[in-house]
Amino acid sequence: MSTVKPVTRPGDPVRYRVPGQAAEPRFPVVSLRGAGVRVGDRTLWSGVELDVGAGEFVAVLGPNGVGKSTLVKMLLGILPPAAGEVRVLGEAPGRAGQRIGYLPQRRSFDASLRIRGIDIVRLGLDGDRWGVPLPVPARFSARRRAARDRIAEVVELVGASAYAHRPIGECSGGEQQRLLIAQALVRDPELLLLDEPLDSLDLSHQGAVAALIGRICREAGVSVVMVAHDVNPILPWLDRVVYIAEGGAVAGRPQEVITTETLSRLYGVPVEVLRTSDGRLVVVGQPEAPAVHTDRHAEGGKP
Amino acid sequence: MNWADASAGWSWNPVTDLQQIWAFPFMVNAFRAGTVVAVLAAVMGWFMVLRRQSFAGHTLAVVSFPGAAFATLLGIGAGFGYFAFCVGGALVIAAIPRAGQGGSGQESALTGTVQAFLLACGFLFVALYKGFLGGVNSLLFGSFLGITTLQVAVLTIVAAAALGALTVIGRPLLFASVDENVATGRGVPVRALSVVFLVLLGTATAEASQITGTLLVFALLVMPAAAAQQLTARPALSLALSVLIALAVTWTGLIAAYYSPYPIGFYVTTFAFSVYVLARATRALNTAVGRHRFAGAGAGAGAGAVA
Amino acid sequence: MSAFTHPYFVHALLAGTAIALAAGLVGYFLVLRAQVFTGDALSHVAFTGALAALALGYDLRLGLFAATVLFAVLLGALGRRSRTDDVAIGSVFSWILGLGVFFLTLYTTSRNTGNGTAGVNVLFGSIFGLSSSQAELAAVVAGFICLAVLAIARPLLFASVDEAVAAARRVPVRLLGIAFLILVGACAAEAAQAVGSLLLLGLLAAPAGAAARLTDRPYHALALSAGLAVAEMWAGLALSYYVPQLPPSFAIMAVATAVYAVALIGVRRPRARPGLAEA
Predict the structure, then answer these.
(1) Strands, DSSP E only, in B110-246?
(2) What was the ipTM of the complex prediction?
(3) Three-state DSSP class for residue C269
(4) A72 to chain C: nearest residue by CA?
(5) What's the domain count of chain A?
């Protein structure tokens, strides 16, 4: 615990950062130096220091409305940083869009949407190209074959083959989320930006999807930055967490950041972190506390 | 030349002007019918806007066109067609739970197709009834000419019956409209109320269509109520205001249409729309002033107001 | 086939085919993007625009295109938020129609053309009244609309079903939305010449709704929607030719509605799992 000395009064910059428990990455996939962001005339947070190494799994946590999704939008280059330096895959945000897979925060698809899941995945591959795909049979077009194989591969990877040919509106929330992860993965990105992918899923699906993301991160070496409401479903896979409060933030390893002392200092009010007998973390007294589930998540989805 | 007529006719003395207008029996009937329809449409429209069923009102209005055209084709009074088709349409909407709503994609495609088909049917009936083409415009855009005393009587009786029914179900209907779940929990028959209301709305639409025409019913059915609800949140006051606006709009519309060559539908929509825009502007101004006053209350409130 | 010896029928067929093709393509995206209400809006605007042009002494089509395209740009500039308040929208449309009536009266009273059916023609179309040059121009414009829709089809599909991801992929989502609305506006002006401003919504919505019901592959549905629209147009024109009592716009709408009804009732699709469909 003593390795973290976050200076975390709201508004103050976060000066301390903890290297990943793995070897120091060659170059950070994401690096924020004194970064801040404003929406309108309101500063959401500032002075955030963060490095995400290749193949790391980082969660962005904090109460509602504090600017977690804004962080993702800034990394995508949709929203400019108000201060500091931001590099994504070694470039300015927005420049490396082709190498990033993005899963926005969303409500599910409309139940009446009559488009197959596999078409949604395919749009992730070629949706930004003009014109319509020419109706050339796949056996005459190498590119079509390659596209088809790649789509089948990612659909298989996320375990969605059984329902990828159904209209996506008829898939359950968890199935839709898997297909959308496949869409984010279809271009073989180096970085996945996931905005509350476990939101609106029931507990068993939360565990399964979290396990899927963890496995992709580990096996494919994809860096993952994931905005989350509740840390527990992803805790086993996490390398690092960023806790955002109004004004400031603190980054570090989960067991070092999610502690009574650190969070109390970050929020400026007494916050208590309890650890249940099965290793789950419960945060008590956090302003606008996020939903923390106290029951076990399903084990079924783990690889 | 028309404007010359108008300026000669309009003396800026309301008493003599009204005496002049009311010297014609057809104008007296027009005012009677307009008054009855305005009151009924404003009251039903008030509930309709509250219940967010303006789409259903629109659909019912569209139904009224083939209704009137079919009745004309059969040689019976257009009024019967209006009432029969609108009430029938209301029952259909009530039977199909989500038929009257816009919804997304597929649903709105269905509604759009049905509306276009109904209008096409109306056109077919009109085309089959040779020599009636000029009448299309008055069916679609309203007319105040040639309203008979019998028609006024029918309009009045139907409106009185509809308003009477609404008085009986008014309070539970208000409850069910504002908070359906709680009302259900209290044992209010929400579903039955909704069906009854749709039927009443059908009669109101049928009446309004006869004055403003099929395509302009929003002028009496929606705009006064929407303007009133912008101006006040108190139910009784805004209901009264809605009736007042509808009456004012109808009367000024009739007078303007009498003194100028342009049809009543144009005046009624324009006046009603002006009132609605004014009401929205007033409210926006109030909100802006209020926001300015409470600017220091916190950033969160500001963000909420933007959303 | 004696029908083809009549020039008016050939003109109607030429213009109708091209217009139906454009309407089918545009309509599919309209339904997909849940913007059918835009078609409703445009039908009102088309009426007023056409009559304003007539009243001021210009070609009717000039008014049609100017009004619908301008309105589409306006709608695109206002953004998606504007569709939430259906009372406000309904009021605006109603007033626009009221203005249309004003222009109609202005036209019929100020110009002694004795043309009392102008309003009816604008409202319900007069495809059998198209001249050779009118039909050719309509076909050329419709052809351009088709090409433009095909050119933006894929990114538009992406932006329609998955706006946030498309935006992150640098698809110009907002620009595409405006471009599409302009195409819808132009298509509405075209369709108004065929079936009239009141019924153009049906021509846009019915084939697309049926196609979306029949297949869940987006590009197949796009092609099917265009194909259905053309087939319905042909069937409607033929029906109206052989049964002269039926106005062509009614015949086209009747066929389109019947096809849609068959697609709705005839094709049983698997029910979504309980609890999901209502979500």
Answers:
(1) none
(2) 0.87
(3) coil
(4) C168
(5) 1
